[in-house]
Amino acid sequence: MERRVAEGLCSALGPLGLEVHAFKVGWYNAVLQPAFHLPYPDDTLAFVVLSTPSMFDKALKPFVNKERLKIIRDPVDQCVSHHLSRVKEKFPDQRVDVMFDYEMLPSRKPKFLAQTAAHVAGAAYYYQRKDVKLDPWGKKKIFGVCIHPKYGGWFAIRGLLLFPDIQVPFLEQRAPVDCVSTEEKRIELLEQFNFHWQDGRYRDIIEVKERYSEEQKTYFATPPAERFRLLGLSQ
């Protein structure tokens, strides 16, 4: 069943520059405090959805051209929401719950921790302070960051698709590729991400197969309120 669902998702989302990776809710809940648990049984089938560099041309621009008059909030969020909601139509016999990376609970906690989900699904390695043996940062707060084996930091985690009626007790967990494997590189990655993230150098910590186009870099470097203009939209 899991394979059939995965194939259906890949055929629907792959051509849009979106990647899906399967995981069991239990893998995610096992590494987090109860306050962050997803409220489903451990064997519930879930997928984390990533946007790759090609999503900008394959999904966002066509969506903006088609839905120009209906775009009222962040165009990327709206585009991803549109396509993930349409996925439900592919599975009329299944309940499909969708969670987006920008959604918050009433407590102001995020609905899910995107980087943890990507890590347990084997999609991207979540490098954190604990992955560095000789920590040079003292009392500074250091945030972790996911690195994709193919795209480095040139990708984003967009959402989760959960299938509450599908239990997959025998799904095997695949570890994410540890592509930043030396201590020096990990320190460099976390330094760049925490203290120089605006210049985007952390994204190229490994040799990447594809990165954002210049147009896409400009788009994401522009303050959200001004991005409408870049896409030819009035706000």
Automatic annotation (TrEMBL):
Gene: Mmachc
Enzyme Commission number(s) from the entry: 1.16.1.6, 2.5.1.151
GO biological process: cobalamin metabolic process
Essential cofactor(s): FMN; FAD
Keyword annotations from UniProtKB, A to Z: Cobalamin, Cobalt, Cytoplasm, FAD, Flavoprotein, FMN, NADP, Oxidoreductase
PANTHER family from the UniProt entry: CYANOCOBALAMIN REDUCTASE _ ALKYLCOBALAMIN DEALKYLASE, METHYLMALONIC ACIDURIA AND HOMOCYSTINURIA TYPE C PROTEIN
Bilayer-spanning residue ranges: none
GO CC entries: cytoplasm
Biological source species: Leiothrix lutea
Name of the protein this chain belongs to: Cyanocobalamin reductase / alkylcobalamin dealkylase
